[in-house]
Amino acid sequence: MALFTLLTVLWVLSSGNVFVVSLAFADLVVAFYPYPLVLYAIFHDGWSLGDTQCKVSGFLMGLSVIGSIFNITGIAVNRYCYICHSLTYDKLYSFRNTLMFVGLIWVLTVVAIVPNFFVGSLRYDPRVYSCTFAQTASSSYTIAVVVVHFLVPIAVVTFCYLRIWVLVIQVRRKVKSEVRPRLKPSDLRNFITMFVVFVLFAICWAPLNLIGLAVAIDPPSVGPSIPEWLFVVSYFMAYFNSCLNAIIYGLLNRNFRKEYKRIIMSVWAPRRFHTETSRAGTEGLKSKPSPGLNNNE
């Protein structure tokens, strides 16, 4: 029953929104398990939960991080195909294919994390009170992580968004070809939202990855010379990125702002919330909405 409900919800969502839901899940993974353990370690001034809990926490941290960047890459490719190759988009991103693409993203995410158990790079770091990826565990593996998990996805996303920006500029100057449809305002707003998500991800994660790359190239000399405060700031700035996406959606998307308001009202003024909900339901029955309306417009 739960699987049927999930598939029904995904069927209602467009293919682009399915990727956004997948990204939201990646952001929430760290909130359910690793972050509470980090707070526990901070309050107890150290890790006292055992090696198994440490490995699980580090695994879920990696699942969230790599899942986020892979989903952001998937969103960029999806938007690129939707805007720049609109004639083949519906066939390429059918409901079945979209679920397969999202599944592939998570399979690649798990595959990318598994080598950590063989290298022994999931360790407790007292500087950040977290069980996380140890950049000094293996120089070659750290370089591979930075390249495969950060630089390559950033390059793919940059290429996709640059091509989209070129098309947006052409459309605004009315120099588009006849086979490319005019961009709708909702398409442009959605693109800008995901572009901001990508830019903030790159800004938040670049310092930590650059530190890891520098340490991996020359561990004996570079490792001890990096100030502890710089590593701590870059680490928490990177993981703070998981909290930013919800804020971005709220600032740039009208529907998210509306739902945030509904949630706040349901918590602080439940009677008023139920009254307005009942009133909206009654009005909705009286007036049938037009099937051509788009929630994003």
Automatic annotation (TrEMBL):
<dbReference type="GO" id="GO:0048511">
    <property type="term" value="P:rhythmic process"/>
</dbReference>
<keyword id="KW-0472">Membrane</keyword>
<dbReference type="GO" id="GO:0005886">
    <property type="term" value="C:plasma membrane"/>
</dbReference>
<dbReference type="InterPro" id="IPR000025">
    <property type="entry name" value="Melatonin_rcpt"/>
</dbReference>
<keyword id="KW-0812">Transmembrane</keyword>
<keyword id="KW-0675">Receptor</keyword>
<feature type="transmembrane region" description="Helical">
    <location>
        <begin position="229"/>
        <end position="252"/>
    </location>
</feature>
<keyword id="KW-0297">G-protein coupled receptor</keyword>
<dbReference type="Pfam" id="PF00001">
    <property type="entry name" value="7tm_1"/>
</dbReference>
<feature type="domain" description="G-protein coupled receptors family 1 profile">
    <location>
        <begin position="1"/>
        <end position="249"/>
    </location>
</feature>
<comment type="function">
    <text>High affinity receptor for melatonin. The activity of this receptor is mediated by pertussis toxin sensitive G proteins that inhibits adenylate cyclase activity.</text>
</comment>
<keyword id="KW-1015">Disulfide bond</keyword>
<protein>
    <recommendedName>
        <fullName>G-protein coupled receptors family 1 profile domain-containing protein</fullName>
    </recommendedName>
</protein>
<keyword id="KW-0807">Transducer</keyword>
<feature type="transmembrane region" description="Helical">
    <location>
        <begin position="98"/>
        <end position="119"/>
    </location>
</feature>
<dbReference type="InterPro" id="IPR000276">
    <property type="entry name" value="GPCR_Rhodpsn"/>
</dbReference>
<keyword id="KW-0090">Biological rhythms</keyword>
<keyword id="KW-1133">Transmembrane helix</keyword>
<feature type="transmembrane region" description="Helical">
    <location>
        <begin position="56"/>
        <end position="77"/>
    </location>
</feature>
<feature type="transmembrane region" description="Helical">
    <location>
        <begin position="190"/>
        <end position="217"/>
    </location>
</feature>
<dbReference type="GO" id="GO:0008502">
    <property type="term" value="F:melatonin receptor activity"/>
</dbReference>
<comment type="similarity">
    <text>Belongs to the G-protein coupled receptor 1 family.</text>
</comment>
<keyword id="KW-1003">Cell membrane</keyword>
<feature type="transmembrane region" description="Helical">
    <location>
        <begin position="139"/>
        <end position="169"/>
    </location>
</feature>
<dbReference type="InterPro" id="IPR017452">
    <property type="entry name" value="GPCR_Rhodpsn_7TM"/>
</dbReference>
